Request: fold
Amino acid sequence: MRPVIGITTYVEPARWGVWRDLPAALIPQAYVEAVTLAGGRAILLPPDDHDADVVDVLDGLVLSGGADVAPDLYGATAAAETVSRPDRDAGEMLLLRRALETDTPVLGICRGMQQLVIAAGGRLHQHLPDVLGHERHNPAPGVYGEQQVKLTPGSRAAELLGEATVVHCHHHQGVADPGSLLITGQSDDGLPEAVEDPSRRFLLGVQWHPEVTRDEHLFGALLRAAR
Reply:
């Protein structure tokens, strides 16, 4: 049986067929394909803050991208540019904490990496242009930026991707303090782009979107850990 990998979903207004702007639990197909191509069986997880029991039947967890994580989770007040989804925050933090308790393999993508940081006691920059003075991490709506990322020699990230890689990113928030996690990747402007916990079976967060390229290195590593 293929390893079962849960993928957290967005809840956004969507259009399909004759239906217009209905709230929908959805995820870009790229996430599903990336898991499938790596040898896993994708299960979509809509927001649910009742319990995290589903983690017990998963072999791995992907925390997907999407809207900003609410800043009250790391003791901050929302900036004007921050747009959060409290239902996602509540449900996904339950899933993540259960995954940490059970040492379930976790890959955090973009927003998902930021959730890993917050669960580890870290905090975020809420609007990177105010900190970095540029918008290369989020060049335009619906447009991915490209960043050169340098990875720490000897880290899990470098083991999988080499000591440098070019990535696709789309985010206006970023890691200010990684908490107890290790920063193992940075862009040229010094922003953390990868974090991990080497004491765990597999806990890796990347600020970019590896599902866009169906990255076999990252998703393959998740699946190997899940097996």
Observations:
- The first strand starts at residue 4 and ends at 8.
